[in-house]
Specification:
By secondary structure, the chain is α/β, with parallel strands linked by helices. The protein folds into four domains: about 110 residues, Rossmann fold, CATH 3.40.50; about 170 residues, Rossmann fold (3-Layer(aba) Sandwich), CATH 3.40.50.300; about 60 residues, Helicase, Ruva Protein, domain 3 (Orthogonal Bundle); about 45 residues, Arc Repressor Mutant, subunit A. It has a five-stranded parallel beta sheet with strand order 2-1-3-4-5, sandwiched between helices. Strands 7-10-13-6-14 form a five-stranded parallel beta sheet. It has a two-stranded antiparallel ribbon with strand order 8-9. Strand 1, helix 1 and strand 2 form a beta-alpha-beta unit. The two termini are about 35 Å apart.
């Protein structure tokens, strides 16, 4: 995410530090309002709010904490990034619990500072590309879906459970027009002996209990979208009938004689390995070719961490309104914990955790213990403080991850940012349990 065009406030009384930050942010295209006292900042904040505030904690007329709390008491306040010395870390953490978003400790590296600032800013959700995610993978998927939307070509969405395959299908459908039907069918949830009648419909008297004509999913989809989820679990007897539907673009109700036109787009989704199922004889190869015209694999959430913060905000807003919880937001500590988590259940797990967190939170800001209550140690005083070695490793692990994210997993650049050799970086990654799929450097490197 770019800082270009973003408006931020800078509250810093040190002329050297302030000038340095203003110049560096200007190079990023950022519009900076520089305030040199707390009273000046509060006065300016009353007239118009920037998108974020960079705030030194020690000021000549009042503390950064006073500025933040007075601004918060006056109404909605922009996210604060606090600049603090080592001795004020406890105060900074306390401010984050009160609603501040993040802090950096002096002295700090400029790339780290810019990364922290970017993390508390949210790009406005304009246009289709902001819908599915800001990560490069989801941006590419968004563009592909938008490009094929004008055609009725079958689309196959693959990926782990909970990654958002139906969300992608609905996004594709929305480009056709929201007034058209979107009919979702879970192929694994309907008994095999009922699936044909449910998919194609039936005439009155077609079988025992068929007291009236019934329009099936294919008919109800009209000119919209027929979404077949868990297509890998479709019984083989139905696979041939689905193939005929796609080839002939027409169908007949069970017990009927008249052929009806099929005009909907078909979007299929699965978390199964369909080529493997073709090999073991449980999925028709010709059907796979027919539904696999446009194939998109939706990446797991752990592979697109850039989307996590936006998803947190999206589900927070939804559940905060739905439950009328009156909460203020997701804290920076909770966001950092979420980014570090691997999300085995993907977006579905994140949504469920957010619903529980909003419903059960005891404070105005969601904290890590709200998202991950199973990790909370409040009832175990002997474990409140982690061993020093564990805390050091955890901090080092997060710092290395941040460097790798900033450089796109480029080892040389990451090592340079961290001030160590590539060999040292690789060894640390191996010791800390980070992925070392990146090529191992030679022993001759320093």
């Amino acid at each position: 995410m770019s800082l270009s065009g973003r408006v931020v406030g800078l509250l810093e009384d040190d002329p050297i530090m302030g000038e340095s930050l203003v110049q560096r942010l200007a190079l990023e295209g950022t519009i900076v309002r520089w305030w040199k006292s707390g009273s000046e900042a509060l006065s300016e904040l009353q007239r118009g709010q920037p998108e974020a505030v960079i705030c030194d904690i020690r000021l000549p007329d009042m503390s950064g904490e006073d500025v933040f709390r007075q601004a918060a008491a006056a109404g909605k306040t922009p996210p604060f990034l606090f600049i603090t010395g080592f001795g004020d870390i406890d105060q900074a953490v306390s401010l984050i619990r009160a609603g501040g978003r993040d802090y950096v400790t002096k002295p700090f590296e400029m790339p780290e500072f810019l990364d922290r600032l970017q993390s508390i800013l949210r790009a406005p959700a304009e246009g289709a590309e902001a819908v599915l995610g800001r990560s490069p993978q989801m941006q590419a998927i968004t563009k592909t879906l938008a490009r094929v939307a004008r055609m009725k070509t079958p689309v196959l969405l693959t990926g782990e459970t909970g990654v958002g395959k139906e969300v992608c299908a609905r996004f594709l459908h929305q480009t056709l027009g929201s007034e058209l039907p979107f009919v979702a069918v879970n192929c694994a949830a309907i008994p095999a002996d009922l699936l044909e009648a449910e998919l194609f419909g039936h005439e009155r008297g077609a079988f025992t209990g068929a007291h009236a004509r019934h329009a099936g999913y294919a008919e109800r989809a009209g000119k919209g979208t027929l979404f077949l989820d868990e297509i890998g679990d479709l019984p083989q007897t139905m696979q041939s009938k689905l193939l005929r539907l796609l080839e002939e673009r027409q169908f007949t109700r069970v017990g009927g004689e008249k052929s009806l036109p099929f005009e909907a787009r078909v979007v299929c989704a699965t978390n199964a390995d369909l080529p493997s199922r073709v090999k073991d004889g449980t999925f028709r190869e010709d059907l796979l070719y027919r539904i696999n015209v446009i194939a998109l694999e939706i990446p797991a959430l752990r592979e697109r961490r850039e989307d996590i913060a936006d998803l947190l905000d999206h589900f927070f807003d939804a559940y905060n309104d739905e439950l009328d919880a009156g909460l203020r937001g997701v804290s920076a500590l909770a966001e950092e914990a979420a980014v570090d988590y691997r999300w085995p259940g993907n977006v579905r797990e994140l949504r469920n955790r957010m619903e529980r967190a909003v419903a059960m939170s005891s404070g105005p800001w969601l904290m890590p213990s709200d998202l991950f209550p199973e990790k909370a140690t409040a009832n175990d005083p002997s474990r409140e403080l982690a061993p020093l070695g564990e805390a050091r490793d955890d901090a080092e692990r997060r710092h290395i991850r941040r460097a790798l994210d900033m450089t796109g997993n480029e080892m040389a650049q990451s090592a340079k940012l961290l001030g160590i050799s590539r060999t040292t970086l690789w060894e640390k990654m191996r010791r800390l349990g980070l992925s070392t799929d990146i090529e191992q450097p030679s022993r001759s490197e320093n």
